[in-house]
Design goal:
- This protein is of the alpha/beta class.
- The protein is 41% helix and 17% strand.
- The protein is built from eleven helices and eight strands.
- The protein has helices at 43-49, 75-85, 100-109, 139-150, 152-168, 171-177, 183-190, 192-205, 211-221, 248-255, 273-285, and strands spanning 4-6, 12-19, 24-29, 51-56, 91-96, 114-120, 235-240, 261-266.
- The chain has an eight-stranded mixed sheet with strand order 1-2-4-3-5-6-7-8, with helices on both faces.
- Helix 4 crosses helix 9 and helix 5 (152-168) crosses helix 9 (211-221).
- The longest helix has 17 residues, at 152-168.
- 50% of the residues are buried.
Length: 288
Amino acid sequence: MHDHVRTADGRRLRIEISGHPRGRPVFLLHGMPGSRVGPRPRSLFLYQRGARLISYDRPGYGGSDRRPGRRVADVADDVVQVADALELDRFAVAGRSGGAPHALACAALLPGRVTRAAAMVGLAPHGAPGLDWFAGMAPSNVSEFRAAVADPERFAAGIIPRSARIRENPARLLEELRGDLTADDWLIVSDNTVRSMLLRNYREALRKSAYGWIDDGLAITGPWGFDPASIQVPVLLWHGQQDVFSPASHSAWLAERIPRATAVLEPRAAHFAALRALPRVLDWLLAD
């Protein structure tokens, strides 16, 4: 079994594989902060669906080496190198939250290899024409993203001590978010199984440093390196109407521009409801 891949430039990418060992491959790109051990359907569900789920730590998170200055588009090169190491020709891609723009990058830049892509509770490019990027967003996220845009050093200086506190006690992150969670979201993250997965995910994400989180924030608010309108493969955009971490208007903006997009908007759902929707999204990804 592979547990890491060495890239052409010598970096280590830590990977995790679950589900059917010979199943149809699906890359699951984690959120921000996040890691390869983030929430996912149970292995039995994946096995029964004939799915082989592949996730890896984006550079700077968990067991993966940092790639300073990375753009969202750079994910495509890393995904290809993991796929090549696993001898995978074609595969689907799903991304949740901070992983959603990265899933769209794979769809745009790897049309000969990506069969379908799903972007769940994701963001549109910062500065997207006709979109008020911060409208409907929680003040904490507005402050964090504005700092990433205007003063990257101040943004990093804020994330480093915050990351250290969360690494020491991952439950702190859920407590920080609690004031912005809907009742439904709080119910989801309070489930013992989900909570255990999230805490393990956050601890692993920040185990070595804060730079995965920092580089994600800078990449998502900077130029992505591709145009979502260039995507030609089928894309599912899933969003909860009540989401204040990545407002649903972002998926609506993307849906108007991606030619083969299917938009699903859940009126009563918010951000963490994407965890509940993931099995259905995987069924869609495997339906090709």
